[in-house]
Amino acid sequence: MSCNETAYIVAASIDESLPLAQRRQLDAHIASCAECRDAVADTRDGMAHLRQWREVAVPRWQRIPESLNDEGLREKLRRARPRFSFWTQWLPLATACMLAVAVVLNVQVQIGGDGMQLSFGGNSQAADISEQLARFEQAQRSAQEQALEQLVTQLEARQDSANLRLMETMLEQFGSSTARNMEQVLAYFEAQRQQDMQLLQSSYQRLADSDFQTIRSVQQLANYVQYQGGQLQ
Amino acid sequence: MSLSEQDEALIRAALEGSARAWERLVRRYEGRVYNFALRLSGNETEALDLMQEVFLGVFRNLHRFRGDSLFSTWLFRIAHNKAVDMNRRRSLLMPLSALGGAGQTEEEVLEHFHDEAHEQNPQALLDTEQRNAGIAQQLSRLSWEQRLVVELKVFQSCTFDEIAEMQDVSANTAKTRFYTAMKLLKTQMEQTHVV
Ligand SMILES: [Zn+2]
Hints:
The structure holds 2 protein chains of 2 kinds. Chain A is built from 8 helices and 2 strands; from the N terminus they run H-H-H-H-H-H-E-E-H-H. By secondary structure, chain A is mainly α. A two-stranded antiparallel sheet of chain A has the order 1-2. In chain A, helix 1 (6-13) crosses helix 3 (34-50). Chain A is rod-shaped and about 115 Å long. Helix content of chain B is 73%, strand content 0%. The longest helix of chain B has 23 residues, at 19-41. The radius of gyration of chain B is 18 Å and the shape is globular. Chain B starts with a helix and ends with a helix. The model of chain B is unreliable at 96-103 and 115-119 (pLDDT under 50). The interface between A and B is large, with 36 and 50 residues. Bound molecules: zinc ion (ZN). The site of zinc ion has 8 residues of chain A, from helix 1 and helix 3.
């Protein structure tokens, strides 16, 4: 006597989401068919035996695929780079605010050997705002040159420390990989650094240009204030 | 956040270029995939190779994951295909007698289960090794298709419909394959006095 349903009965018997109606049919079949009853019991035993498998720990391996070394890695690093535009886009606004404050408060700007000095009130009434602004503009120009150098140095340092951190991570990831990979990574860092510096300088130049435009409109504001002052006096 | 929501968040981040998210995603599943590979191949070196291929496949196809099934189901579809590929390569390299039904001797299988990381407790290690080696040995006597059905059903809790789709057969064929495999295992368990 042989049952044709055994394979399907066994399959249904281990299906935990079997609908209730089918579960009842199944139970009824098992109750009346010795072959299926045995097969279901054997399958459960077999599954329990197999599930005695003890999980084996995964050996050390390289989780980041090799293919990430090239384009994927570049993309990854590109995203990890600091956003220079963030640093530069606020500077013209800050300069404009500073100038506006200087004009409204009638601040005296004195340029000495040590740089720029500001003083409030005093002999401000005698001061010629236009002349002050001209000097301010000149001071700005040299201050900007200094600031540019400082910024480049700072960002260079910032880049290096970020790169160092990145490098440590990469060394960890590529611990088992070849020296050639590391060479590629280093070459890539250097190329990125150069690119960043170029980007920084060109965006700073744009910033400088826009600053002088701001100064011209502040000059107009200053004339207006002067005019208004004249009216008030 | 549910597990599958966490998976999906990690997948999104990985697709946006986050290596960290990719690594977290891998760490969530590498144990399952490695043990899957170890049971199928009975060999640590091959298991590691297979696991790496699986995750490379997952990595390359990640943008195709649509979330209409669980990520684990999708992942094991790839794992299944990579296992089939591996077996195909093996068949080309090994003599026919070394495949499928013949299997490895217990010593051969046991040899592959030595794990240096657990040397502190040699007895527990030996028990685990012997148990796992015994299971791998029994599985090695099944045909590759049978082994995969058993693996996917018993350890990965796939449905027969999912297995049928992976193996490109009908659900009934998958059920028959499973039943035949379990009958063979039963015979082996009786021979090795497990039952
Ligand atoms: Zn029956």
